[in-house]
Write a structure and sequence with these properties.
Blueprint: E1 5-9, E2 23-25, E3 39-47, E4 56-65, E5 67-72, E6 75-80, E7 87-91, E8 96-104, E9 127-137, E10 141-151, E11 156-166, E12 171-182, E13 190-198, E14 203-213, E15 228-235, E16 238-244, E17 249-251, E18 256-258, E19 261-263, E20 265-270, H1 275-283, E21 288-291, H2 298-307, E22 310-314, H3 325-339, E23 345-352, H4 366-378, H5 384-390, E24 399-405, E25 412-414, H6 427-433, E26 439-442, E27 447-448, H7 461-467, H8 474-494, E28 499-502, E29 511-512, H9 524-532, E30 536-540, E31 548-555, E32 561-569, E33 572-580, E34 584-592, E35 599-609, E36 615-626
Parallel strand pairs: 20-21, 20-28, 21-22, 22-23, 23-24, 24-25, 25-26, 26-28
Antiparallel strand pairs: 1-2, 1-3, 3-8, 4-7, 4-9, 5-6, 5-8, 10-11, 11-14, 12-13, 12-15, 15-16, 17-18, 18-19, 27-29, 30-31, 31-34, 32-33, 32-35, 35-36
Length: 627
């Protein structure tokens, strides 16, 4: 319904933008012509889109980054400063209409990762990133419908509903709310009514709570079904709906508890989340993804709901420096009303990377360890604002006020042995010396991709060169990254760490911390983490030639498993039987690795009983160590 768009870089002031020249652009999007601009105006014209039986039109702009002002037919009709929540404006169109939208770069600390040089300039262009549309309606109609579920247990739950009603004529009616199962599962439906009263031309908000008896709960994949419900609101023939799900998530002593059941948390940081990233994470055996200092479009959460993948949501706040708590509370409120309907929303964090203790890499020698101790000892950070802001987030999900480096007592630690400091073999020392705890928000190392290195956003070439002898050797670079991430992930699993996420799934530039390139091409580290994240997997504590290493099998599933573990190391090979209870681990013995071994391969073959009572192989997973 909207016409051709034009855009122009502008100087922001109090009035409607009026540049000398407009350039044709594609909207939605991030026009490359405006890279580096602080403010960009977008303009389009459109005819009255209403059919004869519709009286109102609703403009929706989605992904307005970061601060926006919107003019319709020369009238300033709204401002907006939460790019992840749509801007909506109801109006009566003229025969011909002009729409002008001015988007400005972040003017506060809440641009998140998009306000840092970890993102290429094209990702930071102020604009209408995700959608621009107009819908038409008869009156009265429901212009917005938000829901926030509150799961109590498997016998009783509740869903808070907020509906915005717009009407041309006075109304004194009842709105009908209904709850129906989505898909093929059987569950008890509900129907409630709420009073609606409004004068002619008014916009009113109706709130209601739906009590859900005997709810069918949503579970992470591998732990149960992903049941979801459709919440429908009907008023005078107009109907709209929202999909949601019911589950309870809390932080247990040694894991996340979803509906009271233990769910090990292992996965990836996403820097620019897409629905395709959800599938990539699931394919790599992740149970959780962390949305690193940004919020995504709804399609990402919808994909996570369907896949049964937990989502750890950051506020868009990262890097050193103070911030406005009141502004953060506004952002948190918008986050909740936008995403809290999704059962996959599992945790929140507030301030990411508030200090930078390691601008350059430290080695592993005695003096470098002294330097690391000195830096971490002198590090300081005022936790008060982050903790105050954390209180604005719901207490029915785990909340981590501070995510950051060891040395500042973070609630979720960022550890980078083998990248920021030391070698990957320093992992146990870091975890023990700094009492990291059971939540690790970040770990990893950078690596080259297959293409030319022209865009270095998110890639520290100095740290890379300090660990990879030939910094231009893609194979050596990716092999090093794979070793770092797999050894840290294995160490965390052997320590029964409750929640940990590698940084990151995909690069933002031509190289980076991603275990995939920005286009989704796998680096060596992707398969290494896929193996390390296998729910049932065998690990060696010390996979080095000449060492005698414990062989441990971990079962992170809710079911007992039986099978055989096989190994090959040089001329040595063998196997042993295993039988593990749900959520357990067992050391099966030790292996003495030959001095001349250049690699070690483990394989776990899982068996189950068939209808005839015979044990047959169900599946096999491997774990390879390159020396």
């Amino acid at each position: 319904m909207l016409g051709q768009w034009t855009g122009a870089s502008v100087e922001s002031d109090d009035g409607k933008p009026d540049p000398e020249m407009w350039t044709p652009v594609d909207v939605p999007g991030r026009p490359s012509a405006f890279k580096g601009a602080d403010a960009v105006a977008y303009r389009t014209e459109f005819e009255d889109p209403r059919p004869e039986d519709h009286t109102r039109a609703v403009l929706e702009l989605y992904g307005l980054f970061a601060h926006a002002r919107i003019w319709l037919n020369d009238d300033l009709v709204g401002t907006h400063d939460a790019y992840f929540r749509p801007f909506r404006h109801s109006f009566e169109p003229a025969e011909t209409n002009e729409l002008v939208v001015e988007c400005r770069a972040p003017q506060d600390r809440f641009g998140g990762v998009y306000a840092t040089d970890a993102m290429p300039e094209i990702h930071r262009v102020p604009g209408i990133w995700w959608d621009a549309s107009i819908e038409t309606y008869p009156e009265p109609f429901i212009s917005e419908l938000d829901v926030r579920p509150r799961a109590v247990d498997d016998e009783q739950a509740a869903i808070d509903v907020r509906a915005v009603v717009e009407t041309a004529e006075p109304i004194d009616d009842r709105m009908t709310f209904s709850l129906r199962p989505e898909g093929e599962f059987q569950s008890r439906g509900m129907m409630d009514r709420a009073q609606v009263q409004a004068g002619a031309g008014e916009r009113t908000v109706v709130t209601h709570t739906i009590d859900v008896h005997d709810p069918s709960l949503w579970y992470p994949r591998g732990h149960g079904p992903q049941h979801r419900y459709s919440v429908r609101a009907k008023l005078d023939g107009f109907t709209t709906s929202v999909t949601t799900g019911l589950c309870s998530i809390e932080r247990g002593d040694d894991s996340l508890l979803v509906n009271g059941e233990r769910v090990p948390g292992r996965g990836f940081n996403l820097q620019t989340a897409t629905p395709a990233d959800v599938k990539r994470a699931v394919d790599a055996n992740a149970t959780v993804v962390r949305l690193h200092a940004h919020a995504p479009r709804q399609a990402v959460y919808e994909a996570a709901d369907e896949a049964g993948l937990l989502v750890w949501q950051d506020l868009p706040l990262t890097g050193p420096g103070g911030f406005s708590v009141s502004r953060g509370q506004e952002v948190a409120k918008h986050l909740l009303w936008t995403f809290d309907k999704h059962p996959s929303l599992a945790a929140f964090s507030v301030h990411d990377d508030p200090v930078d203790l390691f601008p350059s890499a430290l080695g592993s020698g005695f003096l470098d360890r002294l330097r690391m101790r000195w830096r971490t000892h002198r590090a300081s950070y005022d936790r008060g604002p982050a903790e105050t802001l954390a209180e604005s987030l719901p207490d029915d999900r785990p909340v981590f006020p501070v995510v950051g480096s060891v040395g500042i007592d973070p609630d979720a630690a960022a550890i980078y042995p083998g990248w920021d400091y030391g070698t990957v073999d320093s992992t146990d020392w870091v975890l023990d010396h700094y009492d990291v705890g059971d939540v690790v928000a970040e770990f990893g190392a950078g690596a080259l991709g297959l293409g030319e290195l022209t865009n270095t956003s998110g890639f520290d070439q100095g740290k890379h060169a300090s660990h990879v002898a030939d910094a231009d050797d893609t194979q050596a670079s990716q092999r090093y990254q794979a070793r770092v991430v797999s050894e840290i992930a294995e160490t965390l699993r052997l320590r029964d760490t409750a929640l940990f996420t590698a940084f990151a799934l995909r690069d933002t530039g031509d190289a980076g911390m991603g275990v995939m390139e920005r286009n989704g091409t796998e680096k060596d580290a992707y398969q290494a983490l896929t193996d390390a994240f296998e729910p049932v997997q065998a690990f060696l504590a010390e996979p080095t030639p000449g060492a005698t290493s414990e062989l441990t099998v971990v079962n992170d599933t809710p079911e007992p498993v039986e099978g055989i573990v096989k190994w090959v190391a040089g001329d040595l090979e063998g196997d042993t039987e295993m039988a593990l209870d749900a959520h357990s681990r067992e050391t099966l013995g030790t292996l003495t690795i030959p001095d001349d071994a250049n690699g070690i391969s483990l394989m776990v073959a899982l068996y189950e009983e068939n209808e005839e009572g015979d044990m047959v192989e169900q599946r096999a997973v491997g774990n390879d160590y390159y020396i």
